[in-house]
Protein: Aldehyde dehydrogenase
Organism: Maudiozyma humilis
Amino acid sequence: MTTSELVYTSLDVIDTKMAVSKEFYFSRQKELSDAKNIAKTDLQFRLKQLKRLYNAVKKNEASLIRAMEKDYHRAPQESLQLELIPLYNDILHMIDCLPKWIKAKRVGDYSPAYMLGSVYVEKIARGSVLVVSPCNFPVLLALTPVANAIAAGNSVILKPSELTPATAREMQRIIEETVFPHGLLQVVQGAIPETTQLIRSPTFDMIFYTGSPKVGSIVAQEAGKNLTPCVLELGGKSPAFLTKNFDIRNRSKLHTAMKRLFFGAFSNAGQICVTPDYLVIHESIYDEVIREAKIVLNEMYPEFSNATDYTHMIGDRGYNVLTNLLEKTQGETYTPTAAAGFKSDTQDGKYCIPPTLVFDCPWDDPLMMEENFGPVLPFYKYSDLDETLDQIIARVDQPLVQYLFSDSAHERQKILTRLRSGDCLIGDTIIHVGIQESPFGGIGTSGYGNYGGQYGYDAFVHERTVFKQPFWMDFMLFMRYAPYTEAKRALVQVATEQRAWFDEDGNDYWYHNRLLYFFSFIGVALGALFAAYRS
């Protein structure tokens, strides 16, 4: 199939690409096994591919920004600060840290059966992996997991979103013009039929999907038929809290809080999986917060038109859904003064919704039902925090993230204890996704698995235990072999069974469990020597 911007990959070619991806992985592993220094050769290969990817994207920065602007009027600064710079930083972090991540980790076990052997955990590539990326961050959320997969030693097939066709086409051009080894990184273009063929294939050793919970559920079901592991980065209706313990007497602090909330709510026109989806505000500060919110919104958007440097909705579907919800809301809508009377020029394919605050939304409001995924921020006034948490838990028990604006550590901990979420930010919004040394991911319906820094690398590897037991140890382990005797059973119990370090009431004994293991080891050694002497 062909759209005005994108040529879809035929189903026959998809089969060929999957076969090439799998063959590349096995061929490279065979070639690698013949190397004089396998570890060094493998590391150098992976680093070289990451550097190629970095240079290719950096070289084509301007064309990628233009493509995103063409797809959905993406503000160029947002493409740079929210998409490309984080991608550059991610890849450079991988290049810098890969020599450390790739090393096997030695571990120990204090049991006499293992303590004199060699135990280490190595991280091996999964094989051929599939990355299915979304439309809202069409470069970052495509190429960051691709880079993670390459860093981990896999071959990759990327399926970009068809909803941002200019960007998908540009990424394919960049990848195909970069001198990657044949089969390492390939692109498949398409929509539902092409994606279905990919996720149903037993070829892949892992699937990394970013998108909606509805489609994520389908991906998981299809992958489960082949026992293919998945990482699902999904969405969720993420709440923001402005509690009674947030000091609004500090006007500058309240002003900054509003700017941070609106940065998260309206960047990329609110089309961010971690955007604050609604704001719950304690009744004692509600009116003051609304007054400040109006001031800040007009400061941030002093001018507004179809030509404003402001990101539009990605296509007509999301635009129509959200405008319909705004027509049905029970709340009071407020847009920047400059946007008064604004109407998007949909005839020319411009699907623009101004940043919109909706005051006094009840729980049963249409805007409070599902993730809005657009530049709309409902305000809900609450009186009792526990009752509010009860309502949130009853609706969306596992949001992707929660945002807390409270000066009370106890209150923050109360919310964190009651409300499960993938992540949490205190005093800011959305920027946590760029932290290199912490995991980003959902919980339950907002996804499973995570990535970011080493966590992204670990998502694409299998941790394999390698244990080497010296043969001379058998004089201490003879009791495991048949024929079994009472003496052997007693030795097995002394040597291998851990002893509880607490009594029936749960009170700890004065000695440490490892001390018991030491004496167990001595006992086994003496028993073995005695048995050897008797024989």
User: Anything to note?
Assistant: The radius of gyration is 28 Å.
